[in-house]
Amino acid sequence: MIASGTKFGRYEIRSMIGAGGMGEVYLASDPKIGRDVAIKVLPSGLSENKERLARFEQEAQAAGALNHPNILAIYDVDSENGTTYVVSELLEGETLRDALGGTAMKVRRALDYAQQVAQGMAAAHEKGIIHRDLKPENLFVTRDGRVKILDFGLAKLIETNGAGASSDLPTRRVNTDAGAIMGTAGYMSPEHGTNPVLMRGYGAYGSGSTSPFFASGSLPWLERGGILAITGIRGGGAYGEEWHIAGKGATKANTWKDFIACAEYLIAEKYTSPEHLGIVGGSAGGILISNAITTRPDLFGAAISAVGLNNALLAETTPNGIPNIPEFGTFKTDEGFKNLLAMDGYHKVKDGVKYPAVMLTHGINDPRVEPWMSAKMAARLQAATGSNKPVLLRIDYDAGHGIGSTKQQRNEENADIYAFLFQQLGATNR
User: Fold this and answer.
1) Is 192 a catalytic residue?
2) Whether the Cβ atoms of residue 316 and residue 348 lie closer than 8 Å to each other
3) Of the candidates 171, 63, 167, which has an alpha carbon nearest to the alpha carbon of residue 123?
4) 1 domain residue, yes or no
5) Domain range for 135
6) How many domains in the chain?
7) Is 290 a catalytic residue?
8) Do 78 and 147 share a structural domain?
């Protein structure tokens, strides 16, 4: 901590305002102009760190190049006895994080703040400056309601050549290694390849679509930085009956082919990567999940099969098998047998293959899909997998297919599923 009365050039330190990872901030006076200012210096322990010093200087360079009412104004940059310091306007108010206070903000005020931030960022982009760490802690709300963008220490500086910012153009200064991820994960754009993603699918009976729906059970996943992807694959009803027929019986393979294509898209667009991608499906969606992991085991980090139809070839022999013949077919005909075998995930498990982590869940009283299908699939995967990743079987002895489960039963099952996914895919509080 710098003592009161210490001078940096013509500026005199009066007291500390605060400290963070990118520096310490002090209240100081400027006797030449007769105003109070803020002075930011690197913490003493980091002043010899060349990388941190370079970032500190970059912050001053980036913010100093801007003149906009929604960006912190920089007055001066200099050094004193080997300590580099940045002089800026003194702000009175609080960070947006403090202003939020853990409560919801009124829509009108939120829109006003968002507009101010957008205007400030647009001005920075026009100058070829990409902030890269925009979050509530780096937004300051003054007492008169003005939003100021702070902390350009992770900014990327782009040569604009008079044409505006472009990430395809060379940077004026490079302080990061190729492929390095910059910023605070929970506030970054999603296209950095490390997000834990949970991709849902069903693809049967012409059921299911990508229309919005309310699912409070997804909140634990989303609140920890996870992304939820809903797939509109063939066999389902996203695009009407033709879409259903295109993933039924002889064309059933289109269901998991579409699902795999969705996964490949999310990875190619850098929303996630295989080690961070989880998949989930239930009931007839068990066909989807079992075929996805046996067709492309390298593509997923974890899979959840809930009350899944994992052994389609034998489904007809079960009490609820006959009503499902119109959707999946019968093994009593040559064509039907071939189609069912082609969609039977159990028969596709191979010894020594590195399968992802898998959790199979079932209610022992399930009247629709026999619980032995999950048990049989779990045993086969446990014996076959060469990945050393867990294959777990969760049985609820007081539950069935899930439709009649109590709120407590659903919450307990979700807790187990999410704990498994958090562990396997790297989802944490962000």
Assistant:
1) no
2) no
3) 63
4) no
5) 93-177
6) 3
7) no
8) no
